[in-house]
């Protein structure tokens, strides 16, 4: 195919992606999500098309900038960055134009500037040291050993077997296993070496001969070459002003040592073999994915601890070793223990050196006129130990835009070397379960600080909804959060929300016993694209509910919900000596008499409490705004500043019973009233019992309820803060008291491609 035909074919594919973003044509609905995937597949099968696709995407981006078509900027930019990560042979001028474009986007509001900054940081290094993005991605995702780049990533795929059909679970598991069978450590190391040399040397690299040489190399020789290439790339990338020429010289030496000076010279001179040899495709392996059926409440925490358990592959600082990172020793102190020296400064009081410390029973210590006394042990509370921030990665290498720069390291010399990408499949019920696990995880961290210093936790969500049923038997809407994410981020809607039909279609296909059953694994490729490029979180407020039962012997439990709390009226009543006697004069009728006390949500944020009594047949408390509400509503938290509790609100719908009297007699009508509140207290007034359903999950049902209270869930606080106040100044104690009275709300982030697009 000639170059003009190649560019024309790629241009048609790019225009199809743009039409999908700009119009809701019915003809395009069936192919949503396929255009982007097919575009990347074209350059994956033929890497020589990458420079042409980069030029086309860059031209469309500059056109969107000049015409102010902002809705296509982030999707095109993510598509371009994904191509540049895998491509070789792209001219330096294209890298510089892309970098300049990202720098111009910094003048736009969020999320455009945050996504552009993330891309610009990566492009700056890739321009000077080609192949850096690919190498770091493969090393981290495949957990290849490297002292210069010790970061490790893993994707945890959680599926609730009670919410997702066994056929879907087995189909996803087969596709993941089939893809990972070909991704051995040796194959990944060969990919890294080949990509680095081709990216640096360009046409001077004899790609076919190089891959044949690497294929024939034994394991020990391959590891030596791999570490040499990684060292050359990382050492050059770590320099303040990396030199592209110096990087080229280092990799030329490695290339000559592999193929010999004659082959290297033939490649540089553009010999016949080098011209006729078509560069073979270098795949980008999918990340290491572990598949989990979520059956245990503590399963998420256990899997994260096991992910951090191998400590032999990394060198930990003294501050990090002092913490209970494994979470397996309950008697270990939470805070780091330091020693407050009480010596006099006299030379004989000081230790002789690190290698010359005297044992307590040595003769020199017994006869010494002056002895060193035992130091007074004092607990040191680093501020970040008690005020837990987000679970972000280290700054620079795994930069996550939109967050304060100080969140990268909690302790001096301690950075988060592990990234856990937790991906859940299911509906709103699964997200409610994820919120429970996230709350439990944060609460556990206040008791035993074992994960936060080393782990960057990223949450992802792919909706898997049941097939549509007839209207008479249709279940309540279970995909409200997915619909909200789709309205907030159009690229999430086109790329992730469209996976649901494809997953069901895959589950219906008969399993293939051949080794080539996943030649083009569409679902796995989209999952991989999502976890790699979805770096911008949308924050959701978690709400806590305290429940009081009619039986006073039961302690009032507390639970949380993320999306919805449904209240229904039971037919049964309390006994006469129950919790709340029925008021006299209350007319019998459908529903129950309820007392509702709530704080009205006002734009002025003034506290205005309202108390009302009414008869209702049910209530629904939704934490998500409806489709007719602006997406930039109270659910979203700007990444740079956490909101105050009154910036979030619940949308409450009360089905009220209105009594009317006329000549025909007494009648009742039903009307729905809605209001917004930050917190609410509801109590049954006429002995009617209530049933609460959290996050639409029948497994989280509470019956025989007479009263409940709902409020934004605060951040879990450490029990050591009271003791810490003894060591602070009066001003610091007052500041601590102020922050205690105004707790930060607990927000659960779910990653998307751009966050909320205004």
TrEMBL record:
<dbReference type="GO" id="GO:0005944">
    <property type="term" value="C:phosphatidylinositol 3-kinase complex, class IB"/>
</dbReference>
<protein>
    <submittedName>
        <fullName>Phosphoinositide-3-kinase regulatory subunit 6</fullName>
    </submittedName>
</protein>
<dbReference type="GO" id="GO:0007186">
    <property type="term" value="P:G protein-coupled receptor signaling pathway"/>
</dbReference>
<dbReference type="InterPro" id="IPR019522">
    <property type="entry name" value="PIK3R5/6"/>
</dbReference>
<dbReference type="GO" id="GO:0045766">
    <property type="term" value="P:positive regulation of angiogenesis"/>
</dbReference>
<dbReference type="GO" id="GO:0046934">
    <property type="term" value="F:1-phosphatidylinositol-4,5-bisphosphate 3-kinase activity"/>
</dbReference>
<dbReference type="GO" id="GO:0042269">
    <property type="term" value="P:regulation of natural killer cell mediated cytotoxicity"/>
</dbReference>
<dbReference type="GO" id="GO:0046935">
    <property type="term" value="F:1-phosphatidylinositol-3-kinase regulator activity"/>
</dbReference>
<dbReference type="Pfam" id="PF10486">
    <property type="entry name" value="PI3K_1B_p101"/>
</dbReference>
<dbReference type="GO" id="GO:0045582">
    <property type="term" value="P:positive regulation of T cell differentiation"/>
</dbReference>
């Amino acid at each position: 195919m000639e170059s003009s035909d190649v560019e024309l074919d790629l241009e048609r594919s790019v225009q199809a992606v743009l039409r999908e973003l700009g119009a809701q044509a019915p003809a395009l609905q069936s192919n949503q999500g396929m255009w982007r995937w097919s575009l990347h597949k074209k350059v994956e099968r033929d890497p020589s098309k990458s420079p042409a696709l980069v030029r086309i995407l860059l031209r469309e981006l500059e056109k969107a900038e000049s015409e102010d078509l902002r809705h296509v900027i982030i999707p095109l930019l993510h598509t371009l960055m994904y191509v540049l990560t895998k491509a070789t042979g792209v001219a330096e001028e294209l890298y510089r134009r892309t970098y300049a474009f990202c720098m111009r986007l910094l003048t736009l509001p969020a999320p455009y500037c945050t996504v552009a900054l993330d891309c610009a940081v990566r492009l700056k290094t890739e321009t000077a040291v080609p192949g850096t993005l690919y190498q770091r991605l493969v090393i981290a995702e495949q957990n290849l050993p490297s002292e210069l780049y010790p970061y490790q990533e893993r994707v945890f795929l959680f599926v609730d077997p009670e919410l997702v059909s066994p056929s879907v679970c087995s189909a996803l598991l087969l596709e993941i296993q089939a893809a990972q069978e070909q991704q051995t450590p040796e194959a990944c190391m060969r990919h890294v070496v080949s990509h680095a040399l081709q990216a640096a040397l360009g046409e001077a690299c004899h790609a076919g001969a190089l891959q044949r040489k690497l294929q024939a190399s034994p394991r020990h020789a391959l590891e030596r070459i791999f570490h040499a290439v990684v060292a050359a790339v990382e050492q050059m990338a770590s320099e303040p002003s990396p030199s592209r020429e110096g990087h080229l010289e280092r990799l030329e030496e490695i290339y000559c040592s592999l193929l010999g000076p004659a082959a290297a010279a033939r490649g540089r001179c553009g010999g016949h073999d080098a011209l006729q040899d078509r560069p073979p495709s270098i795949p980008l392996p999918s990340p290491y994915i572990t598949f989990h059926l979520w059956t245990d409440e503590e399963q998420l925490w256990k899997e994260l601890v096991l992910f951090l358990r191998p400590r032999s592959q990394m060198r930990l600082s003294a501050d990090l070793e002092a913490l209970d990172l494994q979470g397996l020793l309950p008697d270990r102190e939470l805070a780091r223990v330091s020693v407050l020296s009480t010596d006099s400064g006299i030379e004989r009081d000081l230790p002789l050196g690190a290698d010359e410390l005297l044992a307590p029973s040595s003769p020199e210590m017994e006869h010494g006129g002056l002895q060193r006394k035992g130091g007074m042990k004092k607990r040191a509370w680093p501020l970040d130990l008690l005020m837990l921030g987000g679970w972000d990665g280290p700054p620079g290498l795994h930069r996550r835009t939109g967050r304060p720069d100080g969140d990268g390291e909690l302790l001096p010399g301690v950075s988060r070397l592990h990234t856990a990408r937790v991906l859940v499949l299911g509906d709103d019920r699964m997200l409610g379960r994820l919120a429970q696990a996230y709350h439990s995880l944060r609460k556990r961290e206040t008791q035993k600080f074992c994960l936060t210093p080393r782990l960057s936790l990223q949450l992802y969500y792919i909706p898997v909804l049941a097939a549509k049923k007839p209207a008479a038997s249709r279940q309540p809407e279970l995909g409200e959060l997915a619909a909200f994410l789709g309205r907030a981020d159009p690229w999430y809607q086109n790329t992730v929300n469209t996976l649901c039909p494809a997953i069901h279609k895959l589950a219906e296909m008969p399993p293939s016993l051949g080794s080539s059953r996943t030649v083009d694994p569409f679902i796995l490729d989209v999952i991989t694209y999502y976890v790699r490029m979805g770096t911008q979180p949308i924050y959701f407020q978690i709400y806590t509910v305290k429940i009081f039962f009619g039986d006073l012997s039961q302690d009032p439990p507390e639970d949380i919900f993320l999306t919805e709390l449904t209240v229904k009226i039971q037919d049964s009543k309390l006994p006469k000596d129950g919790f709340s006697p029925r008021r006299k004069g209350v007319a019998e009728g459908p529903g129950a008499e309820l007392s509702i006390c709530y704080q009205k949500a006002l734009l002025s944020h003034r506290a205005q409490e309202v108390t009302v009594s009414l008869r209702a047949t049910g209530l629904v408390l939704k934490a998500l705004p409806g489709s007719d509400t602006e997406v930039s509503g109270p659910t979203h938290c700007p990444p740079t500043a956490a909101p105050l509790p009154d910036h979030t609100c619940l949308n409450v719908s009360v089905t009220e019973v209105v009594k009317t009297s006329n000549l025909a007699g007494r009648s009742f009508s039903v009307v729905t009233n809605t209001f917004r509140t930050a917190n609410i207290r509801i109590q049954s007034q006429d002995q009617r019992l209530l049933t609460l359903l959290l996050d639409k999950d029948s497994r989280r049902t509470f019956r025989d309820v007479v009263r409940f209270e709902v409020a934004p869930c605060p951040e879990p606080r450490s029990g050591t803060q009271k003791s810490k106040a003894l060591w602070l100044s009066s001003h610091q104690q007052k500041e601590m008291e102020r922050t205690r009275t105004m707790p930060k709300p607990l927000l659960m982030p779910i990653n998307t491609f751009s966050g909320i697009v205004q």
